[in-house]
């Protein structure tokens, strides 16, 4: 089928979306769904000119189904072939809530932060001095900070919100911190610590965090507290306070897949707690596609 005939078929199907018979409507909906994301602009145009609430609702649901299906495919592709790019994984998660998000604009903003850090670096700086530079740019110049007043809000976990509002969660702040550091070949990685997300500065670039150990870590960084530096002893104390069994994963660098799983799990918990099981269930589907 040519593009022209596809468009004609799509337009004809969309014109039938007000079909009163539910069985026939489902057939029409499924045929539009098969067109994939190419159907979204045409559906949006019809929605803008529709005044019937039932028709508007059907179009909204169909657009969401198409966008969600496409997001699952993109996230699965990222997990298999692009998981070296943490920033892209976080952008895809943000697209769950903001399907029209311009990922390029997020990358550009983070790139500007990286550029500002790079201008302050030189080869003679120690690890601690490099962290001091990053902290100065992120928390001093650009005024990023942890949203302590509303720490459990879902908005804190979406990267675009952090970059716009300057406030975020330990996880969103940590992801930006890691993305900047790694773009500049500074060996900073996430640590999957319960109830908190922290960063580890290692003695060298790690090809595979799965093969890393706590012994590779020189010191830790708290992105939620303006990049404050601390040691393993503080993690020991934190784990004891939570009355948790000590695990190696609480002290060692984690890979990007683990970080994105953590991001999705945090959002699932928030939506469940706030009485939004529909969103929580859809996020569980996203979790499944990255394994």
Give a topology summary:
Elements: H1 3-14, H2 22-33, H3 40-48, H4 53-82, H5 86-97, H6 103-120, H7 127-141, E1 145-146, H8 159-165, E2 167-168, H9 170-183, E3 188-191, E4 198-202, E5 217-222, E6 228-230, H10 232-241, H11 256-273, H12 277-289
Parallel strand pairs: 1-2
Antiparallel strand pairs: 3-4, 4-5, 5-6
Helix pairs in contact: 3-4, 4-5, 5-11, 6-7, 6-9, 11-12
- Secondary structure: number of strands: 6
Low-confidence stretches: none
Main-sheet strand order equals: 3-4-5-6
Q: Fraction of residues in helices?
A: 55-70%
Strand content: 5-15%
- The dominant shape is elongated
Structure, described:
By secondary structure, the protein is of the alpha+beta class. It folds into 2 domains: 3-82, no CATH class; 86-289, no CATH class. Helices cover 58% and strands 8% of the residues. It has helices at residues 3-14, 22-33, 40-48, 53-82, 86-97, 103-120, 127-141, 159-165, 170-183, 232-241, 256-273, 277-289, and strands at 145-146, 167-168, 188-191, 198-202, 217-222, 228-230. It has a 4-stranded antiparallel beta sheet with strand order 3-4-5-6. A two-stranded parallel ribbon has the order 1-2. Helix 3 (40-48) packs antiparallel against helix 4, helix 4 (53-82) runs antiparallel to helix 5 (86-97) and helix 6 (103-120) crosses helix 7 (127-141). The mean pLDDT is 91.
